[in-house]
């Protein structure tokens, strides 16, 4: 059943369009840029094309998928919700916590689906880690550390924290069971442009006593993307580049002695996270279940992003 319109046919929008089309769910494409709209029409001639969001909202298609610049997210998503549409919106959900909260509250009040595109939550390795930690085999999760660094594209409109960290903040919250934030500290270096950090370290303490450390950089000599989880009995390391999870059966006992009983590599099946994410949204449209990355998850992510930004410039 064709039940979604993708708004935005830029680089990432094209990926969403391709996936929803392959899933036979793409009813329309809305793009204000004539050149991008023309290219989309040529590639998908059997899909309805809209020149702007208002045309899309006036249709009888029940769901809107947004792949537009982050500053437009709140205005566009609220307009779609007010038009009675279910909404999928790319990360970050908004640029302000209060705006994110308003979207989540509206969706809840009107029983609408609001899903945020936190793609890495749909990586099979992250799903496996969440389920494994939830089983209790590793004991209580104490700390999560992430690193997302490379010599990457330097932006002028945002710092590396807003560019990279939404991925890792969503992972941290997911693996820790979505605890409430107590404190966020951050420091960074703006080496290339004034007031736009190229390298950021952030430390988060949660009301549960759990902690997290995040490092993001687009001015770094090595490509490094990893998530390390420290628990009472074990340590887990997810190498995102190798797509491999290693479980280390090691730690420190009650007498403060080191314990090392080896390690094992988890066999994670190859998959397409974006396809899984799109399928999940379509499933939520049908069953009305709450998405894994729902509006309130988006609020929690934006809150941490915003608090760290305030710490950087406070």
Description:
The protein is α/β, with parallel strands linked by helices and 314 residues long. It is built from nine helices and 14 strands. It has an eight-stranded mixed sheet, covered by helices on one side. A hairpin with a 5-residue loop joins strand 13 and strand 14. Helix 1 crosses helix 8, helix 5 packs antiparallel against helix 9 and helix 7 packs across helix 9. The longest helix has 19 residues. The radius of gyration is 20 Å and the shape is globular. The model has no long low-confidence stretch (mean pLDDT 96).
Which properties best describe this structure?
31% strand, globular, alpha/beta, eight-stranded mixed sheet, 314 residues, single chain
Give the beta-strand count.
14
- List the helices and strands in order: EHEHEHEHEHEHEHEEEEEEEHH
Strand order of the largest sheet: 8-9-10-7-11-12-13-14
Name the average pLDDT: 96
- Biggest sheet, open or closed, and with what strands and sense? 8 strands, mixed
Which of globular, elongated, flat, extended, rod-shaped describes the shape?
globular
Radius of gyration: 20 Å
**Count of alpha and pi helical runs:** 9
Structural class: alpha/beta
Low-confidence stretches: none
Set out the fold topology:
Layout: E1 4-7, H1 11-22, E2 26-30, H2 34-43, E3 48-50, H3 53-57, E4 63-66, H4 73-82, E5 86-90, H5 97-109, E6 114-117, H6 124-134, E7 141-151, H7 160-176, E8 181-189, E9 199-206, E10 211-217, E11 219-231, E12 235-239, E13 244-252, E14 258-266, H8 273-287, H9 295-313
Parallel strand pairs: 1-2, 1-4, 2-3, 4-5, 5-6, 7-10
Antiparallel strand pairs: 7-11, 8-9, 9-10, 11-12, 12-13, 13-14
Helix pairs in contact: 1-8, 4-5, 5-9, 6-7, 7-9
């Amino acid at each position: 059943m064709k039940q979604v319109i993708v708004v935005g046919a830029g680089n990432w929008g094209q990926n969403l369009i391709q996936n929803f089309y392959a899933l036979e769910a793409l009813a329309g494409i809305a793009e204000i840029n004539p050149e991008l709209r023309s290219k989309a029409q040529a590639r998908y001639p059997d899909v309805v094309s809209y020149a702007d969001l208002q045309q899309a909202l006036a249709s009888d298609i029940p769901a809107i998928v947004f792949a537009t610049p982050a500053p437009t997210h709140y205005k566009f998503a609220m307009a779609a919700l007010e038009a009675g549409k279910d909404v999928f919106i790319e990360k970050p959900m908004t640029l302000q916590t209060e705006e994110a909260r308003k979207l989540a509250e509206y969706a809840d009040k009107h029983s609408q689906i609001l899903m945020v595109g936190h793609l890495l939550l749909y990586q099979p390795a992250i799903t496996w880690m969440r389920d494994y930690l939830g089983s209790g085999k590793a004991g209580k999760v104490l700390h999560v550390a992430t690193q997302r660094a490379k010599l990457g594209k330097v932006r002028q409109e945002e710092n590396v924290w807003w560019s990279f960290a939404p991925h890792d903040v969503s992972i941290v919250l997911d693996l820790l069971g979505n605890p409430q934030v107590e404190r966020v500290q951050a420091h960074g270096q703006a080496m290339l442009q004034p007031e736009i950090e190229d390298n950021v370290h952030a430390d988060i303490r949660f009301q549960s006593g759990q902690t997290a450390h995040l490092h993001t950089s687009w001015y770094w000599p090595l490509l490094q993307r990893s998530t390390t989880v420290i628990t009472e009995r074990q340590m887990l390391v997810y190498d995102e580049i190798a797509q491999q999870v290693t479980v280390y059966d090691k730690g420190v006992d009650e007498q403060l002695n080191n314990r090392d009983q080896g390690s094992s590599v988890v066999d994670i099946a190859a998959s397409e996270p974006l396809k899984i994410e799109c399928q999940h949204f379509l499933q939520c449209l049908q069953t009305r279940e709450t998405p894994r990355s729902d509006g309130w998850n988006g609020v929690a992510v934006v809150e941490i992003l915003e608090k760290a930004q305030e710490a950087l410039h406070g």
